[in-house]
Structures are given as structure tokens and as C-alpha cells.
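Re: the 195-residue chain
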Amino acid sequence: MSKSIEFYFDFGSPYSYIAHKQIQKVEKKNTFKIKYMPICLGGLHNSAGVTAPAFIPIKAKFMIRDTKLVSEKKNITFKFNSYFPIKTLNLMRGTLISQEDKFEKLYIKKIFDAIWKDGLNMNDQIIIDKVIKNMDINPKTFFLRAADIKIKNKLKKLTDDALQKGIFGAPTFLVGNKIFWGQDRLSYAVNEAEK
């Protein structure tokens, strides 16, 4: 019997984008469910005592080259965002609204693409609002809902729960109690889910 795969992600992670593009292909071919688990990666890193590669110059330089290489090898359209790092907290809270309103997959695809395919400045609220409007959503109403204390607390709890499960970065895939960290571990998670 197949199991579900939990996909822990943050829009600010280029490797999460690469994983998401691979997941879209996996979802078409398989019957198991992929459960999207938004987290606040900055908060997770702080709690876990992890310094993100973006803040270590030698790693940041490598990450730019590596994400381009991996994307080319996997035939994924990718552009390293020149506005990186992107402040994604409100966008991640928006994922919870998209889950409530049943347009989660559309929202996740559009936000990931805006950052890592189109290279938009998603630190700019005017640009963010345009992306949201293009989904036929009222950005003012949407972000008012995302600012609600219940939504804030839910994202915080998802992030805290991820840490309690042993998750320290994104993307991470969880199948049962087995953790697979990194976009290159998706096939391992798929194999585990198919057992």
C-alpha cells in the first residue's frame, strides 16, 4: 500500500523550487498523495542553529552555480533570482490561505515560478499584488487574511513541528518517520512511499 509524502518547503529556497518541478512530474505518474507542508525556513534555521548557505559567501556562490547546473540537467526552466534572498513569510502564510480555499497547487506553482522562473522582485508588494491578481484573487483581502493571528500561529506551529520531527532544511520529504533532505532525495522518498 502506498503512503503519502510530506513536502516541506519555503518559496525562498531555490532547491525547493527544483524539487517542486520534479514533484509535478511525480504526481502525474503515481497514485500516492504529496502533502505540501509550508514552513518558515528562516525560523527553522534559527531554531535548529543552522546558518543558511545564502549567508556564507563561499556557499552562496556555489549555490548559484549548482542550482543552474541541476536545473539544466533536469530540464527545468530556472533563473537565479537577482533579488535573492526573498522575504517569503507572508507568501508562506498565503499558502495556508490557498489550502483553505482549495487553490493550493495553483498558488504554489505561481509563486515559485514568479521567483525562480520569471526572476521577479517578490520583495516588492506591488509586484506581489500583480502576481496574486493574476490568479483572480484580491491581494488586499488575501493578505489581510494571511495576517490573521490564527494563520501566523499555524505557520509557526508547522515550522516548530517540522523541527520536532528532525527537519532542519528545505526541501525535505517525510514518508512515515523517514526523512529525506534535499531535492536530489525525492526519488528515495518515492521509493519509500511505494513500499
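Residues 5-193 form a domain with the Glutaredoxin fold (CATH 3.40.30.10).
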